[in-house]
Amino acid sequence: MATAPKKNAVYNRTLITALTCAMFFMFAMTTDAVGEIIKIAKVDMGLTNLQASAFHLSTMFAIAGSGIFLGFLADRLGRKTTIIIGLSLYGVASAAFFLGKDFYLYMALLFISGVAIGIFKTAALALIGDITDSTEEHTTTMNMLEGFFGLGAIVGPMLVVFFHSRGVSWTYLYLLAALLCAVMVIAALYSKYPPTVKSTDEPINLGRTFRLLKNKYALGFSLAIAMYVASEVAIFVWLPSFLEGYTGTEIAVMFATYAVMIFFILRAAGRFMGIWVLKKFSWTSVMAVFSGIIFLCFLGSAILGKDAAVFLLPLSGLFMSMIYPTLNSKGISCFHKSEHGAIAGLILFFTAAAAFIGPLLMAFVADTFGGGDMRIGFVLATGFAGGLFIFAIYNWKVDPASTALAQANETEYQ
C-alpha cells in the first residue's frame, strides 16, 4: 500500500510551484528553439535535412531513455533530490557548449541534456500530484505549467533569431539556460518540499516501470500522447524549412517569417485559456473538438500547400494548447501517487520517442520521395493528427478512464 503524506506537512507550495514553472520555461526555451537552430546549422555546417534533424533527435532520444529507465528515481529518491540532480546535470551540459564548435560535440551535449531533462521532468510531473488536491486540480495545474513551457518556447526561438541577426552564435542560448539552472538549483536546495508518497507493497525499481506497460490506461494515454507530440513537433522542427523561400502576399510572407513564433504564442495563450475552458466543458468533448480542428489544419496544409500552411499550421497551436497537459495529467492521475514518478517517466518515454521518430520519418519521406520538399513530410504528419482525432472521438464516446479518475479522487487526493 502507499503511505500518504500528512495533511499538515509544512512546505512552501507557492515557491515550489514557481520553481516548477521556471523549469518548464527553461527547458522549453532550448528544446523548442531547435527548428531555428536547424535552419542556421544546415547552412553553417552544410547538413542535409536528415543530418540536421540530429540536433533534435539527440535530445529526444535521450529524454525517452531517461524517462523510462530513470523515471522511478523520483519515487525512490524523492522529488526534491531528483530535481536537483537533473537540473545540475542540465546546467553543466549547457555551459559545456562553449568547449568548442563541433557537430559531434554538440550531439553529445544535447544527448546529456536530454538525460537531464528526463530526470528532472519526471520528478516535476510526479510533484504535481503531491501539491494538488484532486484530479481536476491536477489537470488545471498541468495546463498552467505547460503554459509557462509555452512562454519558454516563444522566448527560445526569438532569442536564436535575435542572436543570429547580430552575428552571435545560437550557443549563447545554452549559456543562459546554464545560468537559470544554477539559480533554480540554489532555490531548490533551500526550499521545503512535501514528502514523497512511498509504496510498501512493491520495490521502487525499473521493473515496476516496465510492468506499467501492461496497464490499459498507461498504454492508451501514452499512445494518444505519441500521436499528439508527433503532430506538434512537426511544426516547430520542420515548418521553418517547409516555408523557406516562400513568396506570396505581404501578410503571408510576414506569417511565414514568424510562423513558429506565432504557433508558440497561440499555443501558450491557449494553455492559459485551457484552464478556463476545462472548468466550463468536459475534457473529453474539448479534446474531440480541438483535435478535429487540428486535423483539418494539417489536412488543408497537405492538400493546398504553402499558401494554406502559412496560416493553418500556426493557427493549430491555439487548439493544440490543452491536449498534451490534459492527456498527461489524466494518464498520471489514473495511478497511485507512489507510482507517479514511474508513470510520468513512461509517458515521457512515449513523448520523447514520438518527438524524435516523427521528425525523422518526415525528413526521410521528404528526402526520399519529395527530393527534399518538406511538404511530403507534412503529408505524413497529417496522418499523425488523424490518429489523435480518432483516439479523441473514442475517448469522448466511451470515456474509458472515468472510473479510475473517480476512484483516484476518493483514495489519492483525500
Report on the structure:
- This protein has a two-stranded antiparallel ribbon with strand order 1-2.
- Helix 14 (283-304) packs antiparallel against helix 18.
- The protein has one domain (12-196, 212-411): MFS general substrate transporter like domains (Growth Hormone, Chain: A, Up-down Bundle), CATH 1.20.1250.
- It is 79% helix and 1% strand.
- The radius of gyration is 20 Å and the shape is globular.
- The chain is mostly helical and 414 residues long.
- It is built from 19 helices and two strands.
Q: So what's the oligomer here?
A: single chain
How much helix is in the residues? Answer: over 70%
Assigned CATH class: Mainly Alpha
Total DSSP helices: 19
Please give the order of strands in the largest beta sheet: 1-2
Counting helices, strands and paired strands, the structural category is mainly alpha
Strand residues, percent: under 5%
Per the CATH scheme, the topology name is: Growth Hormone, Chain: A
Major beta-sheet overview: 2 strands, antiparallel
Could you spell the SSE succession in H and E letters?
Answer: EHHHHHHHHHEHHHHHHHHHH
Spans where pLDDT lies below 50 across 5 or more residues: 1-8
Task: Give the overall shape.
Answer: globular
> What count of domains describes the coordinates?
1
Could you name the CATH homologous superfamily? Answer: MFS general substrate transporter like domains
What's the alpha carbon Rg, rounded to whole Å? 20 Å
**Overall average residue pLDDT:** 86
Distance between the termini: 15 Å
